[in-house]
Amino acid sequence: MTDHGTPTPSPQQIFTELSVALTGFDRAELAGTGLIETYYTTLLRIIGEREAGHLFLAAAEALAADRRNHDGEALRRQVVENPRYAPVIVSLIKLWYLGSWYPLSGGYRDINGSTAEDVEHVVSPQAYREGLVWIAAGAHPMGAKPPGFGSWAEPPSLPVF
Q: How many helices (H) and strands (E) does the chain have?
């Protein structure tokens, strides 16, 4: 429990809230991809549970401050622009949008180490199909989720932001 009597969020819940803040998609949209668990475990495998724990603790504190202040500044300062976490944040955003893990920077690996899985790779066929880039672009993944017969005769609809 937190000081205010609310349950302490699990690491996966913190990961989800961090992902919501980083991608601009809400919790339901991210859950709709079916990839929260996959991306969470991918992150743990690549940066390790200890480093992920540090990231999640910093993110939880920043997200709580941002809920109180309604500005998003704490997350930006404490996590996104923090040299310790910034490379992980960049790879995580790319993972959600593109469905691929992109390796952490050499500087990050020099300080924090690396795993054999920290190489560019598509996480799964589902990750490609469910990449947020397709929604953001108002498109569909090539070779998957076809838009339907005759759909190319109509102009594309633009997403509303």
A: 9, 2
